[in-house]
Amino acid sequence: MVTGVVSEGVVASDKTTLLRHLQRHLADSRPACTKLVLSEHYTERVLEDKRADRTLTCNDVLSHATEVLHLIESLHALRGRSKFSESVSPNAEIALLVERWVGTHAANLAGVGTPPTPDAVSRLSALCCRLHYLTRTFH
Asked: Any idea where the domains of the chain sit in the sequence?
């Protein structure tokens, strides 16, 4: 089974609590599988100074979201080159947990008065589709 969760939400909506519980569950139920957990410190907060300064742009968001996705795609590619690429063993699976990714950034852009353009929304949507494809093929 494929595991992939992206948790988006406003401050204090229990995203971190959800991820903590999911991590414990994964550690208990599938201790040997590979786990990638990206907290908001790497997915959202790296851009918080730009948000605070009101200099956050669509390009900042797209570049950062793409960089995060490349990390996930790289892990997927490593698995694809391993002898476990066709394995259905739970130990060969990759469990992916991501706290905040693109939804929060889109809201932050609107908050600084520069909501995503239709082109930016299309590009963010394409990133989400790529991630969805990966979680369907992370076996």
From this structure: 3-137
